[in-house]
Amino acid sequence: MAWIYLLLAGAFEICFAIGLKYTEGFTRLWPSVLTALAAAISLWLLTQALRVIPVGTAYAIWTGIGAVGVATLGIVLFAESASPLRLACIALIVAGVIGLKLATPGG
């Protein structure tokens, strides 16, 4: 269950980071409220995962999920660069996340 919490925490981390773009500096009420809610949910889910998963592993995976998700959505939603080098770097983050999962005892 801890790994499910961690995956969901990563998903809400993506929502939080992308939501920041839509808050326009926290000048728009509802995007700001939803972004803050996503951040709170993400942190709560991360704390639940930390009951079982080592903090170094959980934090690295949480931030990795967020980084890959936000970079991918940046390409899709905001026409950010999808250069081969950028995609290769995103793939390296994915490889690191998978490696940490496989290297964690009981993972």
From TrEMBL:
SUPFAM superfamilies assigned: Multidrug resistance efflux transporter EmrE (SSF103481)
GO CC annotation: plasma membrane
Cellular localization per UniProt: Cell membrane
Membrane-related topology note: Multi-pass membrane protein
TM stretches of this protein: 27-46, 58-79, 85-103
Pfam family membership, one: Multi_Drug_Res
Top-level taxon of the source organism: Bacteria
Any single biological process term in GO: xenobiotic detoxification by transmembrane export across the plasma membrane
GO molecular function term, any single one: transmembrane transporter activity
Keywords: Cell membrane, Membrane, Transmembrane, Transmembrane helix, Transport
UniProt record similarity statement: Belongs to the drug/metabolite transporter (DMT) superfamily. Small multidrug resistance (SMR) (TC 2.A.7.1) family. Gdx/SugE subfamily.
Name of the molecule in the record: Guanidinium exporter
Lineage: Bacteria, Pseudomonadati, Pseudomonadota, Gammaproteobacteria, Lysobacterales
